[in-house]
């Protein structure tokens, strides 16, 4: 069994996987995005330079080299600048709603934190202080919530036995061409529909493996019990330890989403073929994700209870969507 995938930690500037840049509004929106990103970069430099200058002036004043205590600017300048830089960057990057909300909260908190230094009304200052604290608490609360959800997802992924990621999801989706819309729908729904299955056809390679993995991750995000099995490894297990093969099929039978990698790629033992045919016939409520070199109707038939291809065709006829893995 291959090691479980480890998904990236939550970060408002991390890759979202499903989010992507949109060409809405044409050139004007694109120009505004570029302008805001340059403004964000400039504000970041301004914040760094003003903060360093202010620190240097305070050190000089402390050692007696600068008698003036009334500096030409306050720490409000770098605070407001970094808040603007953060906010502008969040607005221009492809983010999920949660990531964008956290970024906007942090940027607003820094701007208010700096602006309050120009106020003289104690009540107004106290109100802004309380509001800034509320923003930071809400921001931290969302980060904690997202990381707890990630921990639960990691646990499901480990239990499923999914292989590690090969590449960014959008790269593999872009390679698939006309099937993108239907495949994206399966990613969004986690193939939750009863009687809905997927077959990914292609040579054994990273693209085929990654497409199946993406469907497994989507199902785990839906909170479903997922099991991944490499059929070739399953057959090798049977040769050395039949009880391991039985345990694997019991785990598959108890899963809500079963992912079988490499059906028909290598010859199977008689016991593995028998168990596989029984799995297809008896798992009435599971969704299957299959990968193979050939479409379902091209799988060769076998004898009697070893005929897992016939069991698969009887089970999935009219209820399976085929996708091509293009490397």
Global shape:
elongated
Distance between the termini: 23 Å
- Overall average residue pLDDT: 77
Query: How many helices?
Result: 11
Question: Secondary-structure element sequence?
Answer: HHHHHHEHEHHEHEHE
Helicity range: 55-70%
Task: Give a description of the structure.
With 327 residues, the protein is of the alpha/beta class. The protein has two domains: 26-151, no CATH class; 169-324, P-loop containing nucleotide triphosphate hydrolases (Rossmann fold). Helix content is 57%, strand content 9%. The chain is built from eleven helices and five strands, in the order ααααααβαβααβαβαβ. It has helices at 26-62, 76-92, 97-115, 122-160, 169-174, 180-189, 206-221, 231-240, 242-253, 270-282, 308-316, and strands at residues 197-201, 226-230, 257-263, 287-292, 320-324. It has a five-stranded parallel β-sheet, sandwiched between helices. Helix 10 links the parallel strand 3 (257-263) and strand 4 (287-292). Helix 1 (26-62) packs antiparallel against helix 2 (76-92), helix 2 runs antiparallel to helix 3 and helix 9 runs parallel beside helix 10. The radius of gyration is 28 Å and the shape is elongated. It starts with 25 loop residues before the first helix and ends with a strand. Residues 1-24 have low confidence and may be disordered.
């Amino acid at each position: 069994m291959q090691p479980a995938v480890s998904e990236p930690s939550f970060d408002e500037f991390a890759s979202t996987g499903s989010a992507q840049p949109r060409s809405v509004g044409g050139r004007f929106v694109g120009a505004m995005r570029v302008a805001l990103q340059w403004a964000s970069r400039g504000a970041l430099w301004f914040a760094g330079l003003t903060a360093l200058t202010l620190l240097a002036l305070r050190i000089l004043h402390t050692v007696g080299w600068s008698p003036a205590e009334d500096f030409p600017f306050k720490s409000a300048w770098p605070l407001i600048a970094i808040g603007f830089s953060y906010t502008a960057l969040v607005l221009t990057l492809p983010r999920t709603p949660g990531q964008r909300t956290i970024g906007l909260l942090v940027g607003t908190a820094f701007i208010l934190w700096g602006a309050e230094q120009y106020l003289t009304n104690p009540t107004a200052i106290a109100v802004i202080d309380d509001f800034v604290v509320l923003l930071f608490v809400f921001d931290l609360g969302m980060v904690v919530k997202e990381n707890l959800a990630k921990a639960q997802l990691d646990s499901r992924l480990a239990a499923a036995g999914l292989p590690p990621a090969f590449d960014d999801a959008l790269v593999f989706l872009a390679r698939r061409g006309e099937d993108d819309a239907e495949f994206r729908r399966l990613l969004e729904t986690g193939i939750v529909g009863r009687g809905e299955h997927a077959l990914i056809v292609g040579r054994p390679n990273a693209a085929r493996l990654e497409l199946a993995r993406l469907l497994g991750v989507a199902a785990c995000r839906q909170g479903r019990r997922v099991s991944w099995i490499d059929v070739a490894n399953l057959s090798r297990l049977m040769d050395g330890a039949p009880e391991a093969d039985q345990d694997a099929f019991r785990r598959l039978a108890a899963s809500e989403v079963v992912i079988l990698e490499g059906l028909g790629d290598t010859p199977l033992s008689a016991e593995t073929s028998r168990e596989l045919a029984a799995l297809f016939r008896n798992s009435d409520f599971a969704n299957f994700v299959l990968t193979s070199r050939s479409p379902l109707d091209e799988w060769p038939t076998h004898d009697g209870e070893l005929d897992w291809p016939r069991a698969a065709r009887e089970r999935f006829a009219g209820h399976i969507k085929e996708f091509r893995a293009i490397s």
